[in-house]
Amino acid sequence: MRGRVASTVPMPATSPRNAGPKVGFVSLGCPKALVDSERILTQLRVEGYDIVQTYDDADVVVVNTCGFIDAAVDESLDAIGEALAENGKVIVTGCLGKREALIRESHPDVLSISGPQDYASVMSAVHAAAPTRHDPFVDLLPRRAAVDDVGIKLTPGHYAYLKISEGCNHRCSFCIIPSMRGDLVSRPVDDVLREAERLVRGGVRELLVISQDTSAYGVDLRYAEREWRGRTYATRMKALCEGLSELGVWTRLHYVYPYPHVDDIIPLMAEGHLLPYLDIPFQHASPRILKLMKRPGAVDRTLERIQRWRAISPELTIRSTFIVGFPGETEAEFEALLDFLDAAQLDRVGAFAYSPVEGASANALPDPVDEDVKQARLARFMERQAAISAARLEAKVGTVQRCLVDAVDGELAIARSRADAPEIDGLVQIQDGAAAGLRPGDFADVRILGSDEHDLYGEVDAGAFPIVETR
Question: Under a CB-based contact definition with an 8 Å cutoff, are residues 303 and 344 in contact?
């Protein structure tokens, strides 16, 4: 199956006598969609369904879709089509589910279509397509999870995504996420902290905090106070970070808008309570283009704050995303974006050439940029940033970096430093990782011997700090 397949995660064994109906699962899209998949899969297991890895073994297939950009829509439609061709019984959910007519036009035979977070509709469709077998004795017993049960996770056992809210209150002109996932709905802070505690008890060593707008966490709840471990915490980003720091694991923040109160968490990073890492989607550097995007546009103040953050926390890593070729973008405005890269010296950067998204208000803006110009600007942007990234990584050669091992491949251990989020940032290749006995989930101190535009290379530095084994 395509996408992030649930069956790659070890499942509890089920005896043939008690085997339940079998469900195949394809998960596409962002980490927020991944957490939705984990929740659905957990409920399926609670209700007695088996998760299988092939279409032939499945009684029904669930496809959790993405629908943010055209490429994601095409990928989702292709995945639905493949599942229909190989199995024939397909349930569709996720962001593309908000565009039911589009799905029905391509694939009229799908059994059910629902939007993101509509777990009840997915389960109802599964019940109809593959009802569980009735056991008059077992069915009398209430289904209960263990105190430390965190459900099925589609990530390796040593890191997990921690979703703190759904939806978004912003109306960026290029984005349709609010129409798919609704306005901001924050989880109470004690609920989040209890989940984080269960994850850590289950062996997680890195928590990746995700939402559509992490900086706005709690505003819809008016920052309500809740108790956890005998202390009171506000449902607010800083208080959440303070609570998570009590768990003694890496905590990494994603999707942070550059609101003024972000300044308050930088000291926590400097003091070692949070990873010194911010994922901030700046999107552009031209005030006029940012206004058209309906994004914050005080670029000079942004540069000042970046400098101030680094003065407080010198090891701070900043990753960001940008859009080039937005409607109306002039050559001068694109050059201003390149100047911003030079000034900001961001560590990790992703960029996209603007493409219209059905339902986005930016589609109506005048002066679209020619496709060839967009692609040329994207290439120039990435070339400029590649040089910056290479220089910042080269500056780490000779240092010792604390790293978390993700995999062992032959003689190498593939790890990440504090500056590297899984799947989107670089890696640290530990040349003697196997010889040092490293395994996934271990921390190791690594002396950096070399670098390129994306990754670092090194060897275990046994003399710096002892390897921390998490198993």
Answer: yes
Please give the model's pTM, rounded to 2 decimal places. Answer: 0.86
- Contact (Cβ atoms closer than 8 angstroms) between residue 369 and residue 326: yes
The residue among 276, 89, 281, 26 whose CA lies nearest residue 177 is: 281
Of 295, 268, 291, the residue nearest 281 (C-alpha): 295
pLDDT tens-digit readout, 203-218: 999 999 999 999 999 9
Q: How far apart are CA 436 and CA 421, in angstroms?
A: 23
- DSSP states along 3-27: SEEGGGS------GGG---EEEEEE
Measured CA to CA, the distance from residue 201 to residue 47 in angstroms comes to 24
Give per-residue pLDDT as tens, 294-333: 987 777 889 999 999 999 999 999 999 999 999 999 999 9
Encoded tokens for 191: 């609920």
Cα torsion 149, 153, 157, 162 to 10°: value is -80
Sign of CA dihedral 190, 193, 198, 199: positive
* Residue 385 DSSP code: H
Both structure tokens of 121: 């509709």
What is the C-alpha separation between 250 and 422, in angstroms, rounded? 13
The radius of gyration of the chain's CA atoms, rounded to the nearest angstrom, is 23
Measured N-to-C along each axis, helices 371-394 and 331-344 cross at an angle, to the nearest 10 degrees, of: 10
Instruction: Kindly tell me the burial class for residue 375, based on how many C-beta atoms sit within 10 Å of its own C-beta (0-12, 13-18, 19 or more).
Output: middle
**Burial letters 184-213, b for 16+ CB under 10 A, else e:** bebbbbbebbebbbbbbeeebbbbbbbbbb
Angle at 10 between CA 52 and CA 414, to 5 degrees: 120
- Residue the block writes with tokens 């603007």: 354
Q: What are 301's two structure tokens?
A: 């103040």
